[in-house]
Design a protein that fits this description.
Blueprint: H1 5-15, H2 21-67, E1 96-101, E2 111-115, H3 119-123, E3 128-130, E4 141-147, E5 167-171, E6 175-188, E7 209-217, E8 224-237, H4 247-256
Parallel strand pairs: 2-3, 4-7
Antiparallel strand pairs: 1-2, 1-5, 3-4, 5-6, 6-8, 7-8
């Protein structure tokens, strides 16, 4: 069928509609929204799982090195009485020196502990950071650590689920330090008193060995801090093997080796 000139003009008029600025803007906003949504899915789930697995693998590899005797050993005159926990000097910034094992967080839960609480160098990668200036594992005073509640592997996601008497193990080259959970506290983000040698008591001389775990609260926010306190209970030298309670972790190590 051949169109007359008038018909062609009318057809072109129906086919060529002006581009709407509002329509274009709407498409851009929809596209941007989808990109943000995909990023959130990646950051919240996919990347989170990847980071969590990486942190666990790093902790297991570190334990394997210690069990195989690949790490530097203490000289005879540096070894403490078996009944007294060995206390190592604080390492350099961002250096991993221990692992955290919390049965309440899962039978296979283990995360590396590195020096400092720098987001970029430690918390966003290694998992758990040691507050520089606080005491080391087994030392009289306050061994204080921090980790993300959500994101970057969710190391302390279940911190609020700790129950009275739960074990919190800190593993180092020398062995395992068992702390026992006592209580939770919620403080403002500026509440640095929890890092004192005697938490929340300025200038007090410590006589006990305590451990303080800090994270953000509520979930997905940083409005305040959730604090978990644990007290030192037992010391297990590496030569005597891992505590029975964390046998699952030990079996994982043997299987990986």
């Amino acid at each position: 069928m051949v169109l007359e000139d008038g018909q062609r003009t009318r057809r072109r008029g129906r086919q060529s509609k002006p581009i709407s600025i509002i329509g274009v803007l709407g498409e851009i906003l929809i596209t941007a929204g989808l990109i943000v949504l995909l990023f959130l899915v990646w950051q919240t789930w996919v990347n989170n799982i990847f980071v969590s697995n990486t942190q666990r693998e790093e902790a297991l590899e570190l334990s394997q090195e210690w069990n195989k005797g690949e790490a530097v050993k203490l000289a005879p005159d540096e070894r403490a009485d078996p009944g007294v926990p060995t206390v190592a000097a604080a390492p350099a910034q961002a250096v991993t020196f221990g692992t955290l094992i919390v049965p309440r967080f899962g039978a296979d839960y283990t995360r590396p502990i590195a020096e400092s609480v720098s987001l970029e160098r430690v918390l966003n990668t290694r998992g758990v950071g040691h507050y520089t200036g606080t005491q080391m594992p087994g030392e009289v005073g306050n061994f204080a650590v921090a980790a993300h509640r959500t994101g970057w592997g969710d190391p302390f996601f279940d911190i609020n689920k700790l129950q009275l008497g739960d074990s919190v193990y800190v593993e180092t080259e020398a062995g395992w330090y068992r702390y026992v959970f006592r209580s939770l506290e919620y403080v403002a983000a500026t509440g640095v008193g929890v890092l004192n040698p005697v938490p929340q008591f300025d200038g007090a001389a410590p006589s006990d060995r305590v451990m303080t775990l800090t994270s953000c609260n509520p979930i997905h926010t940083a409005d305040e801090r959730i604090i978990a306190y644990a007290v030192y209970d037992t010391w297990y030298p590496r030569s005597e093997g891992a505590p029975t309670e964390i046998a699952a972790i030990a079996q994982n190590l043997e299987g990986a080796g």
